[in-house]
Backbone:
């Protein structure tokens, strides 16, 4: 349904895409995972006819994105990174405008149906400028769905959304897939790709560094583990002695012990520490996030994650549970 | 459907959108319609008596205010166009097989119509303030036609600025010269009474021949042919520059 070969794009002297290939099967969800600046949006822009690639080519719905632009535009729906809704129009008017532009005959019915489906009936006649972030995203997606496009591009659809709105978005995506829509989704969240995608491509600095099913990718990255930090090297030695499955970091004075993060196994681990009268200064459950994937796949830290701490919190759901 | 009917249809949808914007944005209505009226009160009641223009001041000021009302209406358009550009609305339309330029045409037509409404208000309030004209129906037609042309030209120029600007704020700033120019023209004071330098500027800048033509038409058709041609040429020239600039910026940036 979507096929890209050797996509290259340079802005000035910055290489944004450096030979990207992938195929997306009809009716599947393909997720492009990567940090800011990896080239995700550029890829979406090329596939949705907004930008031309410098080299390489792509076909969407069987049509070439450069030579058959109009045909491509007829079969796709695009929800960009920032909710592109008209703030001075109401939700209903926004949807109506889309229906009119697509020359849909039963526009009123289509609009009413989408408002219902996206739970926007109550605010349908309020201006979109009064909507919350989550509602805007929903309206944006509803606008994309006017006319039932076969292929939908979602560029970071949940960035900046609260957890509840994120769940709602996920449910909507799942419904679309159930209806047979092909979805191309970009995200910064490993969990999101894991939840939704049939295939994931990890993009880093314009290259795909890994590609496969979520399961295949999970095998390549470290699972959930417990991080123990000790006061001194001697305690670290002792602990490493009775925890042979662990990996040690002498500089940080830490041990990484594989674990499923469940309460039973955590208690067992604490018991073992007690048995040997070893005290860990710090005990944290670490679930893999994009940083770990990056580290595992590229051997270096995620360049865009300077703000996030190395120890992810336990609220992140584990991909490798 | 033919390409033309598709693009006309798309433009009509966009125009409807722009009209709704105008009506719903009090700031736009204020800046485009009310503010020129406020200026009119200021000039006619506060400053007017201090200027010697050889006749009733309100009769002198109305043509200038017609032009001023048009230029004040441009600010909101520049901001709106830039908003569409930076907030992804234009990209949304571009991924949808919406005919090229329908968004721009919508803005231009809506701005021009808004300008004409502002002009109608100015003339109406002018009459209430004692403005009298000897213009024939044909002269009035000329006034409407020239205002329409100027509004159209300024709108294209403004749309281009809105597209080229980096942010809505700088887009709004871009129209400031358009707002300042009437002050440095014969709109409120005859150019001959201005100091050296400014006088030459006022005589040769686009708004002066346009205002003088309007003034001539409103006073009963005493228009110098040369002035009228100059005024028309400026309008057509500005429209052309604005249009070409807008289209090329749209291609490049969108």
Residues:
């Amino acid at each position: 349904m979507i096929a890209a070969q050797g996509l290259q794009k340079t802005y000035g002297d910055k290489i944004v895409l450096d030979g990207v290939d992938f195929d997306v099967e009809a009716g599947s969800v393909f997720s492009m995972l990567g940090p800011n600046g990896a080239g995700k949006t550029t890829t979406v822009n090329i596939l949705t006819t907004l930008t031309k690639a410098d080299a390489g080519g792509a076909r969407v719905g069987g049509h070439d994105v450069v030579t058959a632009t109009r045909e491509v535009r007829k079969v796709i729906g695009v929800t960009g990174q920032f909710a592109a809704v008209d703030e001075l129009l109401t939700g209903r008017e926004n949807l109506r405008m889309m229906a009119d532009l697509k020359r849909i005959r039963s526009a009123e019915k289509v609009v009413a149906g989408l408002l219902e489906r996206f739970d926007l009936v109550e605010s349908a006649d309020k201006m979109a400028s009064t909507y919350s972030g989550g509602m805007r995203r929903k309206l944006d997606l509803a606008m994309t769905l006017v006319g039932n496009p076969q292929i939908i591009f979602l560029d970071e659809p949940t960035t900046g959304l609260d957890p509840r709105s994120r769940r709602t978005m996920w449910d909507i995506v799942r419904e679309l897939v159930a209806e047979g829509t092909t979805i191309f989704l970009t995200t910064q969240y490993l969990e999101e790709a894991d939840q939704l995608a049939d295939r994931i491509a990890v993009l880093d600095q314009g290259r795909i560094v890994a590609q496969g099913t979520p399961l295949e990718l999970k095998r390549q990255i470290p699972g959930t583990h417990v991080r123990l930090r000790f006061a001194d090297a001697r305690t670290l030695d002792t602990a490493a002695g009775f925890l042979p499955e662990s990996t040690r970091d002498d500089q940080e004075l830490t041990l990484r012990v594989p674990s499923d993060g469940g309460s039973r196994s955590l208690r067992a681990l604490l018991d073992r520490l007690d048995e040997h009268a070893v005290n860990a200064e710090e005990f944290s459950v670490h679930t893999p996030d994009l940083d770990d994937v990056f580290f595992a796949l590229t051997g270096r830290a995620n360049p865009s994650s300077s703000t996030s701490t190395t120890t992810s919190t336990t609220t992140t759901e584990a991909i490798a549970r | 459907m033919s390409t033309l009917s598709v693009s006309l249809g798309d433009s009509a949808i966009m125009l409807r959108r722009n009209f709704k914007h105008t009506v719903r944005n009090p700031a736009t209505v204020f800046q485009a319609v009310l503010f020129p009226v406020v200026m009119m009160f200021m000039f006619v009641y506060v400053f007017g008596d201090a200027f010697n223009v050889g006749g009733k001041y309100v009769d002198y000021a109305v043509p200038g205010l017609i032009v001023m009302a048009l230029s004040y209406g441009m600010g909101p358009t520049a901001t709106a166009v830039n908003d569409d550009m930076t907030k992804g609305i234009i990209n949304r339309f571009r991924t949808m097989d919406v005919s090229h330029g329908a968004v721009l045409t919508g803005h231009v037509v809506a701005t021009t119509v808004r300008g004409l409404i502002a002009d109608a208000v100015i003339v109406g309030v002018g009459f209430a303030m004692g403005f009298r004209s000897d213009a024939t129906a044909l002269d009035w037609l000329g006034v409407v036609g020239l205002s329409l042309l100027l509004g159209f030209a300024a709108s294209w120029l403004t749309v281009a600025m809105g597209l080229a600007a980096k942010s809505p704020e700088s887009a709004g700033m871009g129209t400031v010269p358009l707002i300042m120019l009437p002050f440095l023209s014969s709109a409120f004071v005859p150019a001959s009474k201005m100091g050296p330098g400014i006088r030459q500027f006022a005589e040769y800048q686009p708004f002066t021949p346009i205002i003088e033509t309007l003034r001539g038409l409103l006073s009963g058709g005493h228009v110098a042919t040369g002035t009228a041609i100059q005024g028309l040429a400026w309008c057509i020239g500005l429209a052309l520059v604005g249009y070409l600039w807008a289209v090329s910026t749209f291609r490049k940036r969108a």
The interface with chain A takes residues 1, 9-10, 13, 17, 20-21, 24-25, 87-89, 91-98 of chain B (CB under 8 Å).
